[in-house]
Specification:
Blueprint lengths: L1 H16 L24 H14 L5 E8 L2 E12 L4 E2 L6 E2 L5 H13 L21 E4 L11 E3 L8 H13 L3 E3 L5 E4 L7 H5 L10 H5 L4 E5 L2 E5 L8 H9 L17 H14 L3 H10 L45 E2 L1 H12 L3 E2 L2 E2 L3 H7 L7 H4 L8 E3 L4 E3 L14 E4 L5 E5 L4 E6 L5 H15 L3
Helix pairs in contact: 2-13, 3-8, 3-9, 7-8
Length: 462
């Protein structure tokens, strides 16, 4: 019997010493894919794919990481972190995540909800009363039917030429429901269904979705450059979540809350981040650091990059003279702006694959992960023009794979994640115990689709 106990404890502590998480970049242990039930060819196929995209100049470089059942099975860097200076990409290179920031906000909202700070179904106006008065912008005619355009893109000073005007008229004619170069005649109506946190987390709120309401809200900002002032479209670049939310509540909604799905790139989720600040009494960046980053040992994740780590940032070749190096900010957005590494985000998605826990630490409840990763919008997302196949649904800040056979990005059923305009793509596949992180800084959906196909094939090997 004593030998049985001795064997048990020896095996237990031996397994702890070989534990793959948290990842130690100096002693990175990669488990062969075949040991975790994956096709042994996966590594070579992913290497070849990344090198091909770099050789063709589509990507300057990439870092990819994949884990299966708590074991990293692939972690590699390809190409250049700084193409001009010929600095190679490394596994600990820091990337700008753009909208891949959004799932962090989703988990933060689930944590806040668990703690009773708010209910996901609560009206936004319960915490920011001014939102109750927000009107919905609709077309002036017909007067007896409220019609909200799918998109409205007013002309800028640069669009004043004859050819630009002709192009705008043609686009408006051929794309039904969209208006280019003009703001159509309009009127304002009351909200039929009160705007809720649920609406904002699922992009069904109509707040900042490039529609008529946003076009009328004056959310444009002036950038002063060497050649004078230049007007740029987009939500006003405020300093804090407080100032941005104040601007938002003085604008208009693009459509009735809950009536359609339309991507809210910036402001919608920032309002949720502001509600977390109001209800928790903490700045949003401190809330996520205390409740997500620290427990997950995400030591290189923040909106601001310390000076001593700037040399690890990707110098983006399309980023001008400074390669889009981050500037200090107090805008701790729930929509975009995080800088992080593949290692840190693999920790985040491994936690989700583990149903909310990481290395024995519970970050968020299993029920919250399930709620976050369940389609919450019925068929609204499948009706969206880019998703008519019904392959995906929308959870809280993440898309959810409903039918892998119809999806462009092949993933297991129930997989969930989000992408960034910089090309980043990360997801969790709970059915297959997978966490996947793709770090690039050039937008190309083809690379992500091909990577997902390789991994999907490795799972479903014959």
């Amino acid at each position: 019997m004593k030998y049985t106990y001795l064997y048990f404890f020896t095996t237990f502590f031996w397994s702890l010493n070989l534990s793959s998480f948290p990842i130690d970049m100096d002693k990175l242990l990669i488990t062969p894919p075949e040991d975790q039930g994956l096709d042994s060819a996966m590594k070579e196929q992913l290497d070849t794919l990344a090198e091909d995209f770099v050789d063709r100049g589509i990507l300057q470089g990439a870092v990819m990481a994949v884990s299966k059942d708590n074991k990293p099975v692939y972690f590699a860097a390809h190409g250049w972190a700084n193409e001009n200076a010929k600095i190679e990409m490394k596994k600990d290179t820091i990337f700008h995540m753009a909208s891949s920031t959004k799932p962090i906000l989703g988990v933060a909202a689930m944590i806040a909800s668990e703690r009773g700070l708010f209910d996901i179904q609560d009206p936004v106006s319960k915490y920011i009363p001014e939102f109750e008065r927000m009107k919905v912008a609709v077309l002036k005619e017909p007067a007896d039917i409220d019609i909200s355009p799918l998109g409205v893109f007013p002309a800028s000073d640069e669009d004043a030429g004859f050819l630009s005007k002709l192009y705008s008229k043609a686009m408006t004619f051929f794309l039904e429901g969209y208006y280019f170069g003009e703001i159509p005649e309009h009127r304002f109506v009351d909200q039929k269904e009160t705007l809720t946190i649920h609406h904002l987390l699922t992009h069904t709120g109509g707040l900042g979705t490039k529609g008529l309401g946003e076009a009328l809200s004056g959310w444009e900002y002036i950038e002063k450059g060497e050649k004078g002032e230049k007007k740029k479209k987009g939500f006003k670049k405020g300093i804090t979540l407080t100032s941005i939310t104040k601007e938002a509540q003085e604008g208009y909604l693009d459509f009735q809350p809950g009536s359609r799905w339309m991507y809210a790139n910036e402001i919608g989720l920032d309002v949720v981040a502001r509600i977390i600040e109001i209800t928790s009494g903490q700045p949003f960046n401190e809330f996520v650091k205390e409740n997500i980053f620290n427990p997950l040992d995400m030591k290189d994740t923040d909106w601001n990059v310390p000076e001593e780590k700037l040399s690890r940032m990707v110098f983006v070749r399309e980023g001008g003279e400074d390669g889009s190096m981050p500037k200090p900010t107090e805008w701790y957005s729930g929509c975009h702006g995080l800088r992080t590494t593949a290692r840190d985000y693999l920790h985040f998605h491994q936690m989700l694959a583990n149903k909310g826990q990481f290395q024995g630490v519970r970050v968020v409840s299993e029920s919250s992960v399930e709620k976050m990763s369940t389609n919450q919008v019925g068929d609204l997302y499948s009706k969206f023009e880019k998703n008519k196949s019904g392959a995906e649904g929308m959870g809280y800040t993440v898309s959810v794979t409903l039918n892998p056979d119809k999806a462009n990005r092949k993933r297991g059923k129930g997989s969930f994640g989000w992408v960034g305009v910089t090309g980043t793509d990360t997801w969790t596949d709970p059915e297959n115990g997978l966490a996947v992180v793709i770090m690039v800084q050039q937008p190309t959906k083809e690379f992500s689709e091909e990577v997902s196909q390789v991994i999907f094939n490795a799972i479903n090997k014959s």
